[in-house]
# Entry
Amino acid sequence: MRGALWRCPVARTAAQCSPSTRRSRDVARVGKSARGPPRAVQRGPERVGSRAAGMAATSDEVAARDFSSEPARVVRVWTRADTDGRLLDGGAPWEASLEATPEIRLVAGSSARAESRDDADASAFDPVAFFDAARAARLGRVLYTAATLASTQSMLQTNMVPCGSKTDNRQQTQQTHALPRGSRFPTGTVVVADRQVSGRGRGGNAWTSPDGCLMFSFLATHADGRTLPFLQYVATMAAVDAIQECADEVLAEAAAAHDERVGFRRGSGKSVDVRVKWPNDLYSGGLKIGGVLCTSTYTEGAFDVVVGVGINLDNDAPTTCVNAIIGAAWDAILAESRSAENKRVSPRDVSRERLAAGFMNRFEALCGLLNHAGGFEPLEPAYLRQWLHTDQKVVLEEGGGAKTEVTVRGLTKTGYLLATDAAGARFELHPDGNSFDFFQGLVKKKLP
# Structure
């Protein structure tokens, strides 16, 4: 059964930080990847209508580009050595026809890697470093990299429905059937761009893309519509876990290399101050450092979910970033151990490849728990430890100027905010869909 584009009331308004990424300073690795280098999918017999990587575009494609508002973009496709990565029709992923984004030309990554350092179209994202750190069984095994894209999420989302499909903005439903799964992208595909010129945010807002950010989107499959709204919470949890894991790694290395005994304990989950602002933003010290955006298409009995992630990794403006937060945590460790005056080492910067792979590892693991339990209950305690809102007071403005103060207690079974008033009455709080800040314009629904 094929169906329509579906967005839950919370997920459809989720905000994404939408940055593009500066060339990481830590993308190069010495030696061979433990999992082997990325390889090209072996191409089968030549098929009618297919185009080998690197061949010139057809006249029809050139004409399509001439009418596109976007300049031509080269996107390289990489697969892990132990991954087949074929599409539904048996073709290699770079042979797919992306009709909705005619400005994009897919090429096999392996054929371009040698000259990529001098190629202006090549991304600085290192596929070997990414695959070496990726442990997920299904996610992140096929990687698309680009120096510049309009939007990583749009590249995936718009090509998952037939070209020319239109969306009803009021109903958030797709007017035509979705394409069969695997027609354009293998499940688990990750798309990374160094720069993004038309980033997507909440309610269709455009977001700028400062250099130094990690920006990627990926394609996952989810079977249970009842737990679909919780995927954005899983994504923010995965982001926090990945940042904490990377911080643990580099802080432990720095502590071991320091000339004095520095006390640092890994695995606390609190190495750096990174929290979740409901429903889908990442904050540190009161400043936003990232966010996620989830959209989904229903086809063949399951949901194809596109998750977009933006994290300030190496840009300390306009707010702050992960590497700056880790540096501040290291300074605090040295000050507490009275070693600041003898500071001789600093934590190495976390790379885009390591953080993206860490995210994919955690997202797949957390989704496994969600699917096994059939609900968010086993994950909710960990989520509430990561978020900013336990016991937060919220004033609701109602008709006639009346105001009611409630206290946030957690989440309801449907994924909205659970709150109580002074008399102990329970309420479910919904965003009104209009306010940029979710905590402005909340609408309450009384619960039994």
About this structure: The chain has a mean pLDDT of 79. The chain has two domains: 2-383, 389-446.
